[in-house]
Design a protein that fits this description.
The protein is α+β, with helices and mostly antiparallel strands. 31% of the residues are buried. The chain has helices at residues 7-24, 189-211; strands at 28-34, 42-50, 60-68, 76-79, 82-85, 89-93, 100-106, 110-119, 130-138, 144-145, 156-161, 171-176, 181-185. The chain starts with 6 loop residues before the first helix and ends with a helix.
Length: 212
């Protein structure tokens, strides 16, 4: 016997699916570092955004905002294309050979921030990726902390891959190299809206089904 699927249920499923696909393409991430197990009270957080070499990747930037646990009066050391502040947000470009934000921090709590990626398309067919990395150092600026499993000692990385067509959206993927770090995608407002619509429609369909 053929059973007709209620329209509301179809719309709800479609909205949830579209929201999931949209969220997967987001380029903003929450980054949090649990520093309670570092065994020291202070040190440095090293945030880098570098391509494979000067001129080998399209221009791209990361914007760092919503800092939690950072001291606005702490010492900051920069190299390459770095600008901004904790209050306004930092921007790091990938144009120089070494683009580095070295920020003094206090350890013992959770440090967190948001990182947003943007960049030009790569029409050459030879895709040049850029990598954002997070590392933690002791006060001596040399001793790596966090028990990283990566050869470079980074706690985690996010790789930016440029779009291959004009107007396209670049893509990102991340790797966790330590239990001290968590990285999660931040859905855009439109994705949250579609997820909410889908959830409400699904709930309404469930209520009608129970009454029936």
């Amino acid at each position: 016997m053929h059973k007709t699927i209620p329209l509301a249920r179809v719309v709800a499923a479609l909205a949830l699916a579209l929201a999931g696909a949209h969220a997967a393409a987001d380029t903003t991430y929450n980054v949090s570092i649990g520093t309670g197990g570092f065994g020291v009270s202070s040190g440095w957080l090293d945030l880098q955004f570098n391509g494979p070499g000067v001129g080998l990747a399209p221009a791209a930037t990361v914007t760092l905002t919503d800092f939690v646990g950072f001291d606005a009066g702490a010492e900051v050391i920069t190299a390459g294309q770095v600008g901004g502040s904790l209050a306004t947000g930092y921007t790091i470009g990938n144009g120089d050979a070494w683009n580095d934000l070295f920020h003094a921090v206090s350890y013992g709590s959770v440090l967190s921030f948001k990182v947003t990626f943007a960049g030009d398309a790569d029409l050459s067919g030879d895709i040049g990726q850029s990598i954002f990395s997070v590392s933690a150092y002791a006060a001596d600026q040399t001793t790596l902390l966090g028990g990283s499993s990566a050869m470079d000692g980074s706690l985690g990385t996010v790789t930016w891959t440029p779009a291959t067509v004009l107007g396209g959206t670049g893509s990102t993927s991340f790797a966790l190299n330590s239990e001290a770090i968590a990285i999660s995608a931040v859905p855009e407002p439109s994705a949250w809206l579609m997820m909410g619509i889908g959830a409400m429609l699904a709930a309404g369909a469930a209520r009608r089904s129970r009454r029936a």
